[in-house]
Design a protein that fits this description.
Blueprint lengths: L11 H8 L1 H4 L9 H9 L14
Length: about 55
Amino acid sequence: MTGKDTPPGECPQCWEHSRNRAIHRKLRPREDCPQCVDHMTNGCPNRVPKKKSSWW
């Protein structure tokens, strides 16, 4: 995973899987990615924390 490229508040796995076509290229047509299915079922536990807004 490329956590440093992930914007604040986003999950690194969701971000990488939605933008890197090579991850899903090995799947057959209409085959689900096991990592994505597990992630959708169990949620996104590893979100990158957002920076505090300091304009106050």
